Structure formats: structure tokens, C-alpha cells
């Protein structure tokens, strides 16, 4: 029997896409191989948010082609959507399938019973976007054969949204992630994602509830909902859908927004814990904050992208909030949930960022009650307005600013963890590290090691005794 392997790069939404691709192959009778070297078809589901992400994908293509030269390498995802001809020119690539055609990937990749080659029963399209992007890594131009193997079209013309829960490879028995939204209608000057993911679109409420209920029936105690721009969930759903929701006596709001979805999950499923992934500051409504604070069934964890604490930098980024708006949201979240984890994405080295503007960001990050930061160094993306801006920040300066903020993040995280020593905390068990310890994750997003061997996927109460190696150390309470 033919086998496949899917290797995912990037965000949780990309991982969810990868799970949906795996399901396509399983539905056609294929088995998942244990490793790329053992698979007949290898799918690389790529990211393109930074130049390093592109490099990782190219390195993976070379590695797999070297280890398994007889396999078909099919490259999909955001890098494939952005620069398909560049990828098609690389040795070993059998086909390039953009996000626009990802929902038909298995149909494209599976050998035809007549020819033993890639299915070419429908037209392959070369991306118009690739003409605007950076030159391929080599001087080789795509051949006619390369272009025949490219399946990419205008992402804004597509409305498909696949849903398949994705599981952490190390913890498949706990914490599935469900993508409920894709695409983005924002136009941040540094971001290539809208051009490779398309417009914001939402999974319908009925489908989400069915997925969550299926996961609950399978025994899962926590589900994470995610999206490219999760806070925009529901804004694109039709009035008819809203009317049906109202008739079903679901909890109502003005229209279908994220808080509507959260209430519906609490109201119509028996899920023990719902975790909400990253939500933009504009979408942290008072109702959402209050709902999260009031319900013990929602994990006390808020991730709120900041990017910069400088008003002038935020304006150049085309972000839709000002520093004082952001500060207000974080302070309201902390006031409502004193023990919640609060994290942020922060970018350093954005074009034109001066020492004074960086200091505004550093000071704001220091002032606000963050418990961790995801710090990224700016990476110019072809075709974005920021890539053409003047006064690009020297790489060594940007890297030093990244180091400063990461050091700050470590101090904040350490202080937050120390504050729980001697207290009781709720955590979900993950896997057994050895015969004497079990890994767990707290309600407020802290890693923990528990004394003894405990079954995975159980919410427990634990007493925290110490902090060791960036983990809480505790024991289960009777």
C-alpha cells in the first residue's frame, strides 16, 4: 500500500492544514509513514513569514531528496503560494500546490492508475504572484515542465476552509488544536500572509460544534481554537446563518463574533477546558474578557500581539491600534484575571526603527504585566510595502534589540513562575517523562513536572513546590 508523510512548518493554522491534508490521503486508503525516508509521497506544508522560513523549506526539500530520491515531493502552504516557480525549479520537487489548491492536494499528488504519474486531469496554473517576487535561489528559470507541475491561482478567489484537529506530535492524546478561521483582511505593511492566505473566512458554527463534540466523545479534556486572525471569526458569516443560530436558542450577541462562538461552545458542548489562541488587541472586547474571567472552563491565557510600543512604528506598520489602546486592553485583562498568562508578539528592527522608538517598545514591554514574549527580528518579505521602505535597520542592531527583549521576557517569565511556589494550581497531564515524573501544562500556560506517573489527559490539582529549569515542580493533591 502506498504511504505518505506530511511535514509541517510554521503556525498552528498551518499544522491544522497539515492535519486536513493527512485526512485526504487516509480517505483514499493510504497509510502514514513513520518518516519521510519511508514514504512514497512526502508533502512539505511550508511557511513564508520570514526569509528563514523559506530557507528551512528549501533545506528540507534537499534533505528529503537526498534521503529518499524515489519519493514524490509535493510542496504546499504559504511559501508555495507566494513563490511557486522558485520552488518548482528545485531538484526533487514533483509538484507545487498553493494554498489555493490545498483542498485538492491528494487528488493532485496520487499517481494515476493509467500513467503512474501525477494526476493532471485538471489544469495546473502558474502563480501570477511569482512574477513579482524575489528571484529563485539559483539562476535557473522554470521550464515548461516546471510550470505544468504548479497548481496555484488567485487565493482571493477561493473560499474553502478545511477543518481537521491537529495534535502535538509529542502529546497526541491531549490538547487538540482546531482551526476555526483562515485568512486576514488586515494589511500590515510587513506581512505577506494576506497575499498567501486570502480573505478572512470562518468555519461555520455547526461544523465547529460538531468537531468539538467529536473530540469530547473521544475523551479529550482540552481543545485549543486557533486561526490566522482568530478575533475576526464570524464576521463573514451570512445573516441566514445568524438567524438559524438565534432560532436554535443559542446565546446571542449583536452578530457572530468570537465571544458568540465561545459562548456557544460552553453552552452546547461538555468540553472541560477551552483555550483561545492569539487574538489581536482590537478584538479583545469587554464581553470576551469578562466571559473568560467568569468561566472556569476557559483557560486563563491571553496572547495579544503587540509588535511595537512606539506609536510612530505602529503607524508605519499599518497596525490598527495605538500604544494607549493596547495598554488599556492588557490592563483590563490583568485586572479581570490576576493569575492569567499574558503573552505578546514583538518585532524588532522594523524599517526606520530608531533607538528612541525601540526604547518605547522596551519600556512598554517592561511596564505591562506580560508573563512571556515572542520576540522576532524583522524579515523583509517580497512584495510588502515595508520591504521597499528606506532606512532598513542593520542586522546586528536588530539582533541586539531582539536579545534585549528576550532577556526581558525570561525575567518576566521567571518572576511569574516563582509567584506560584507554595500555591495550588490546575494542570492537564501530558506524558510521562520517566517512571518518576509526568509533564503537565497549567491552566495559565506554564510547563510543570509532577512527581510520580500519572495518566495523560487528566485535569488535576497540584501543589507547587519549586521552579527548576523553567518548569514548575509539584505534586498531585489528593
List keywords for this structure.
478 residues, alpha/beta, Rossmann fold, pyruvate-formate lyase- activating enzyme, OB fold (Dihydrolipoamide Acetyltransferase, E2P), five-stranded mixed beta barrel, 18 strands, globular
Topology readout:
Layout (H helix, E strand, L loop, with lengths): L2 E6 L3 H16 L3 E2 L8 E6 L4 H17 L4 E6 H5 L1 H5 L4 E6 L6 H5 L34 H5 L1 E2 L25 E6 L10 H5 L3 E2 L2 H13 L4 E6 L11 H9 L10 H11 L4 E4 L9 H9 L6 E3 L7 H7 L5 H14 L4 E8 L6 H13 L4 E6 L17 H24 L5 E11 L2 E6 L4 E5 L7 E10 L2 E6 L2
Parallel strand pairs: 1-2, 1-3, 3-4, 4-5, 5-6, 7-9, 9-10, 11-12, 12-13, 16-18
Antiparallel strand pairs: 7-8, 14-15, 14-17, 15-16, 17-18
Structure description:
The chain is of the alpha/beta class and 478 residues long. The chain folds into 3 domains: 3-155, Response regulator (Rossmann fold), CATH 3.40.50.2300; 177-418, tm_1862 like domain (pyruvate-formate lyase- activating enzyme, Alpha-Beta Horseshoe); 424-476, Nucleic acid-binding proteins (OB fold (Dihydrolipoamide Acetyltransferase, E2P), Beta Barrel). It has helices at residues 12-27, 51-67, 78-82, 84-88, 105-109, 144-148, 193-197, 205-217, 239-247, 258-268, 286-294, 311-317, 323-336, 355-367, 395-418, and strands at residues 3-8, 31-32, 41-46, 72-77, 93-98, 150-151, 177-182, 201-202, 222-227, 273-276, 301-303, 341-348, 372-377, 424-434, 437-442, 447-451, 459-468, 471-476. It has a 6-stranded parallel beta sheet with strand order 2-1-3-4-5-6, sandwiched between helices. A 5-stranded mixed beta barrel has the order 14-15-16-18-17. A 4-stranded mixed beta sheet has the order 8-7-9-10, with helices on both faces. Strand 1, helix 1 and strand 2 (31-32) form a beta-alpha-beta unit. Helix 14 runs parallel beside helix 15. The chain is globular and about 60 Å long. The relative contact order is 0.08.
Amino acid at each position: 500500500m502506498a504511504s505518505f508523510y506530511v511535514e509541517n512548518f510554521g503556525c498552528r493554522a498551518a499544522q491544522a492544514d497539515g492535519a486536513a491534508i493527512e485526512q485526504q490521503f487516509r480517505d483514499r486508503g493510504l497509510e502514514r509513514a513513520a518518516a519521510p525516508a519511508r514514504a512514497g509521497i512526502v508533502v512539505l506544508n511550508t511557511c513564508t513569514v520570514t526569509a528563514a522560513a523559506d530557507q528551512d523549506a528549501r533545506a528540507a526539500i534537499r534533505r528529503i531528496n537526498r534521503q529518499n530520491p524515489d519519493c514524490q515531493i509535493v510542496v504546499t502552504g504559504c511559501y508555495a503560494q507566494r513563490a511557486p516557480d522558485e520552488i518548482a525549479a528545485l531538484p526533487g520537487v514533483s509538484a507545487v500546490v498553493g494554498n489555493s489548491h490545498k483542498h485538492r492536494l491528494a487528488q493532485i499528488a496520487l499517481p494515476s492508475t493509467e500513467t503512474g504519474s501525477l494526476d493532471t486531469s485538471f489544469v495546473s496554473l502558474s502563480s501570477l504572484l511569482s512574477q513579482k517576487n524575489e528571484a529563485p535561489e539559483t539562476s535557473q528559470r522554470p521550464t515548461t515542465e516546471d510550470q505544468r507541475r504548479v497548481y496555484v491561482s488567485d487565493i482571493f478567489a477561493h473560499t474553502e476552509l478545511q477543518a481537521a484537529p491537529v495534535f502535538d506530535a509529542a502529546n497526541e492524546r491531549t490538547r487538540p488544536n482546531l482551526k476555526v478561521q483562515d485568512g486576514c483582511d488586515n494589511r500590515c505593511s510587513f506581512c505577506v500572509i494576506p497575499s498567501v492566505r486570502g480573505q478572512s473566512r470562518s468555519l461555520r458554527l455547526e461544523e465547529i460544534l460538531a468537531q468539538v463534540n467529536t473530540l469530547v466523545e473521544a475523551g479529550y479534556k482540552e481543545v485549543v481554537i486557533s486561526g490566522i486572525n482568530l478575533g475576526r471569526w464570524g464576521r463573514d458569516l451570512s445573516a441566514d446563518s445568524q438567524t438559524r443560530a438565534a432560532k436554535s436558542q443559542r446565546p446571542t450577541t449583536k452578530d457572530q463574533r468570537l465571544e458568540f462562538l465561545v459562548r456557544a461552545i460552553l453552552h452546547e458542548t461538555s468540553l472541560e477546558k477551552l483555550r483561545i489562541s492569539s487574538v489581536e488587541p482590537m478584538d479583545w472586547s469587554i464581553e470576551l474578557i469578562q466571559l473568560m474571567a467568569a468561566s472556569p472552563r476557559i483557560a486563563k491565557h491571553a496572547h495579544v500581539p503587540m509588535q511595537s510600543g512606539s506609536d510612530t512604528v505602529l503607524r508605519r506598520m499599518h497596525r490598527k491600534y495605538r500604544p494607549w489602546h493596547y495598554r488599556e486592553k492588557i490592563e483590563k485583562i490583568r485586572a479581570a484575571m490576576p493569575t492569567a498568562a499574558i503573552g505578546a508578539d514583538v518585532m524588532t528592527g522594523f524599517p526606520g526603527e530608531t533607538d528612541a522608538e525601540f526604547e518605547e517598545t522596551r519600556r512598554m514591554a517592561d511596564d505591562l504585566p506580560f508573563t512571556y514574549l515572542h520576540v522576532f527580528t524583522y524579515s523583509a518579505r517580497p512584495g510588502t510595502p515595508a520591504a521597499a521602505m528606506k532606512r532598513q535597520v542593520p542586522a546586528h542592531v536588530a539582533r541586539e534589540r531582539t536579545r534585549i527583549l528576550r532577556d526581558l521576557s525570561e525575567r518576566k517569565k521567571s518572576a511569574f513562575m516563582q509567584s506560584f511556589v507554595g500555591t495550588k494550581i490546575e494542570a492537564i497531564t501530558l506524558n510521562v517523562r520517566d517512571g518518576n515524573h509526568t509533564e503537565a501544562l497549567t491552566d495559565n500556560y506554564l510547563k510543570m513536572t509532577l512527581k510520580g506517573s500519572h495518566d495523560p489527559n487528566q485535569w488535576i490539582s497540584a501543589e507547587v513546590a519549586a521552579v527548576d529549569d523553567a518548569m514548575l515542580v509539584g505534586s498531585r493533591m489528593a
